[in-house]
Amino acid sequence: MSEQPDTVIDVRNVVKTYDEGRTRALDGVNFQVERGEFVSITGPSGCGKSTLLHAIAALERPDSGTIYVNGDEITSQRDLSRYRARSIGLIFQLHNLLPNLTASENLQVPMYETDLSASARRRRAEELLALVDLGDKAGKRPTQLSGGERQRVAIARALANDPGIILADEPTGNLDSKAGQQAMAVLRNVQRQQAVTLVLVSHNRQIAAAADRTVYMLDGKIAEGDAAASERRA
Amino acid sequence: MSFTFFIFSNLLRQKVRTGLTVLGISIGITTVVALGIFVNSAKAATEELILAGGADFAVGRAGSADLTFSTLTADDLAALREYDEVEHVSGVLMAISKVGSNPYFFQFGIDPNDLDFFEAPLVEGETLAAGAENQIMLGDGAAGQLGAEIGDTVEIRDLSFVVVGIYDTGATTFDGGAILPLAAVQDYERKQGLVTLAYIHTRSGTEVQALADRIEEEHPNLATLVDLADVGDVDQGLQILDAVNLGITILAVFIGGIAVMNTMVMAVFERTREFGILRALGWRTRRILQMVLGEALLLCLIAAVFGSILAVALTQMIVLFPTVSAFITPHYTLDVFLRGLAVGISVALLGAIYPAYRAARLSPAQAIRYE
To answer: ipTM of this model?
Structure first.
C-alpha cells in the first residue's frame, strides 16, 4: 500500500496588494507543498516570491484567499506568534544574527518562546551548531565569523524549535558563490537529515534548481511548476 | 543564557549612551536620596530636640513658624507646674549665634537648678553651679569643634564663659552646642523672663499623651510636642522640607523619564529591523514588551544603585563641614533608599511605555524591510 503524501502548505487563491491596491504583489496564487519536499520559488525581482513566502510565514496577511499549514488555516488567526515559533523556521537573505550575542546565544533566541530551561537551550544550541559544522564556533560573535558561517548559524537558528517547515528567503543572496554553495549544501543536508519541508525563494535559477521542484513566478502569479505538483498529487 | 542576561547584554550594545543615561538618572536619584537623608536627619534632630534631657514631652507656643521662634513666659511655665502629673518643668531658651568658625552655634539657656532633672550626662568636668553667670557646658561635638577643654574660655556675643563641663546627650543639636545659665542667655538675647520650650518630666504612671492633650485643650495657645508628628504645630520647616523633597522627587521622575524615553526611543528606532526578526522567529508581542521594559528597568535599577551610593558619599562629604555636622548626623533609613528605587522604577515605566508599545506594535514584515 503506497502512502499518500500530506500537503503541509496549501495556498488557495491568495491576493496581496500594496499602495492601496495599485500594486498587486500576489494575484490569486495557488500553491501546495508536500511533507518533506524541497520546493524552490524563483522569478524576477518584484514577481511576488518573497511576498508569498512572507504570507506562508504569517508575516504578511493576505487581502483575500486562505493559507493552510499542517491543516490549520493561518490567514484568519489573530496571534500567529506560536505558529511562527513552533511550526516554521525562517532564514533570511541577511543572517540577522544579534551582534551582541555569541553563535550559541543567537541560536537560543527563538527558544525563549518554549519551556526549555537555560541549560536545555544551551545543549540544543550546541547540537544544532554541530549539525551545521560549527561546533567549535559556539562562543564566537557574528563579527568573528565569516559570511558563510553566519548564514550557517542562521540555518541552525531556523531549526531551533524543531519546526516541520523551513522557509528560506534568498539565503545565499548575500554570499559569494563558494560560500553560497556551501550554505546550500548545509541547507540541503539539514533538510534531508531532519526530514523537514523546505521552501526556498531565490532569483538565482541555479540555486533554485537544487530543489526537488521549482515554481516560477511572474507578476504575482505562479507561471509554472505547481501544476506538476497538482498532477503528482492526483 | 537567561532572558535577564539577554536584556543586560542589549544595554551593553551602546555603552556610551547607556552610561550617560545611567549617569543622568543617577544624578536625579542622588538628589532625591540625599535630600531624603537630610530631611530624615533633620527630623531625627528635631525629635531629639523635643525629647531632650530625658523629658517626657516638650511644650512650645502654638502657631510658631519655627521651633526656635517659640516663646513661653514665666506665667506659661507656672501654669504647667500646676498640673499634678507634672513632676518638673525645665524652661529652655534657645539661641543661635556665631561661635568660633561656626555661624550657627546652638546655645541652650537652662536654670542650673533644673540640671538635676534635665539630663546632660557629663563626659568631663561638672555641671553649671547654682547662680553661676559666666559658666558654660559644651557638648562633646562642640568641644571637639572649638578645641576647648575644661577651664578654657569661650566667647559668645562678646561675653566670656568658662568651660566647666563637657556633656554627651547623644542628640546632635545639643551635643553640637552648649548649655549656659538661663539668665545669661535671656540677658544677651534680651528675652528676660522668656524661654523657647518647656521640657516636662511627669510623675511615674502618668498617661503622657492624655496629659499633653489636656494641656492643649486647657491652654489653646500652647502646643505639646510628644513626638515628631506634633512638630508641625510649632515649626513649618519640616513640612516645607517634606514638600521640597516631594517636588524634587516628582521633577526627578519626569526629567529622568524623558531621558529614558529618549534612550529607549532611539534604541527602538535603531533596532526596528531586529524587532521584526524577533517577531518572525516567533516572539510574542508580550516578550518584546518585556524586553524593552526590562532594558529600561535594568537601566534605572543600575542608576538607582549608583545614585544611592553617590548620595551616601555626598552626605558623608557634606557633614565634613562643621557647620552642617553641628546640626545633623546623616540618618540612613531604608525608606529613603526605597524612595530612590521607586523613583528609578517610575522613571523606567514612564520612559519606556511608549517605546515598548511602539516596538510591540511593529508589523514583522514592515520591520524586516526597515532600513
So the answer is: 0.88
Q: How far apart are CA A108 and CA A118, in angstroms?
A: 9
Q: What does the angle CA B15 – CA B19 – CA B22 come to, to the nearest 5 degrees?
A: 140
The torsion angles phi and psi of A17, rounded to 5 degrees, stand at -120, 160
**Confidence at residue A228, expressed as pLDDT on a 0 to 100 scale:** 46
Residues in chain A: 234
CATH of the domain at A57: 3.40.50.300
Residue type, A213: R
* A83 falls within a domain: yes
Closest to B67 measured CA to CA, from B230, B242, B235:
B235
* Angle B246-B252-B254 from CA coordinates, rounded to 5°: 105
Look at residue B53 and tell me whether its pLDDT is greater than 50.
yes
Nearest-Cα distance to chain A for B342, in Å, is 29
Domain count, chain A: 1
The count of CB pairs under 8 A between chains A and B is 68
Task: Please answer yes or no on whether A110 and B273 come within 8 Å at the CB atom.
Answer: no
Q: What is the pLDDT of residues B136-174, one digit of tens each?
A: 999 998 999 899 999 999 999 989 999 999 999 888 888
- CA–CA distance, A13 with A22 (Å, rounded to integer): 19
- What is the domain extent for residue A74? 7-233
In this prediction, residues B273-298 reach a mean pLDDT of 91
Nearest chain A Cα to B278, which residue? A110
Distance of CA A216 to the CA centre of its chain: 17
Which grid cell sits at B292? 524593552
Q: Looking at residues B326-330, what average pLDDT do you find?
A: 76
Q: How far apart are CA A165 and CA A70, in angstroms?
A: 10
pLDDT tens digits, one per residue of A97-150: 999 999 999 999 999 999 999 999 999 999 999 999 999 999 999 999 999 999
Subunit contact A59:B280, Cβ cutoff 8 A: yes
Q: Residues of chain B with pLDDT > 70: what percent?
A: 98
Backbone angles phi, psi at A199, to 5 degrees: -115, 120
Beta-carbon separation of A109 and B281 below 8 A: yes
What mean pLDDT is reported for chain B?
89
SS3 B340: helix
Neighboring chain A residues of B15 at a CB cutoff of 8 Å: none
pLDDT-derived band of residue B331, with 50, 70 and 90 as boundaries?
confident
C-alpha cell at B79: 501654669
Q: Which of B62, B287, B159 is nearest to A114 (CA)?
A: B287
**Which residues contact residue B197 at a Cβ distance below 8 angstroms, ignoring those fewer than 6 apart?**
B50, B58, B59, B60, B67, B70, B72, B91, B92, B94, B225
- Per DSSP bridges, beta strands B122-125 and B197-202 are unpaired
Tell me how far apart the alpha carbons of residues A190 and B320 are, in angstroms, rounded to a whole number.
70
Nearest to residue B332, comparing CAs of B27, B39, B29? Answer: B39
Residue A2 lies in a domain: no
Tell whether A57 is within 8 A of chain B (Cβ): yes
**Hey, which bits of B114-265 come out as E strands?**
122-125, 135-139, 153-156, 159-167, 178-181, 197-202, 222-225
Stretch B43-64: mean pLDDT, rounded? 86
Q: Which candidate from B274, B280, B287 shows the least CB-CB separation from A112?
A: B287
Single-letter amino acid code for the residue at B179:
I
The three cell numbers locating residue B75: 506665667
